[in-house]
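From the pipeline queue, job 12 of 40. The input is one protein chain; the requested action is below.

Action: predict structure.
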Amino acid sequence: MAKLFFAIALALLSVSSAVAEPKKTAGQVVLDRAFDPALNFRGDPDSGGDELVLTVWASARDDYAPAYSLSIAYRCRMETGEYQCAYTARMLRTGGRDKEFKRSLELVALAKATTDATEMRRSLEEARLEWLEADVAACPNGIFAMDSVRVADWNPDIHPGLQSREDRDLIMHPAAIRVTMFGSYTRSAYEGWRLAAGVPSGIQKLLETLEPCWKPGTSRRPWNRR
């Protein structure tokens, strides 16, 4: 009998191995890179002293349709003979909340059908994505909103029974969010529902604070970075 159970387990393992995740197309790889917040500052000619403070990746649905990526870095530059430092935010997004769901799914479908990385980069250039930059300290309440994320609840209760029935329905295909905040020799990370309390709520308030302060970004787009 033990041998029979072992044989069945081995057969099930073989089947599960055979039904592996399909390999990503070159288009999907480029799309993932485009919305990787760790790339938003990488490779700038004067990026040697940048210190990432906050990175955010958010989806429009589940964990596969990117809606936006946000990075904030502490940057110091030599200007007029002395160092000038600032908290700089960079964001790539598909569009405002009224457009992001449709555009995100369109991007995913395009990426799945595209097998050429160069073609996908060209498509992203034509996709009217918003590449934005803001000075956090110069934005009213910007530093306060950023620091509010730091002191937010990084472990909100996830028990579904504590959610109202209406909210539980929304979680069937949840928009996801991944947040990392960097400190001195430490980092905190959150991954979960984009509309949850705690850190996700803090990120939403940060975005609302920065919204009037965004300017078109002039640096290289993330998908052209290494």
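Job complete. Residues 24-224 form one domain.
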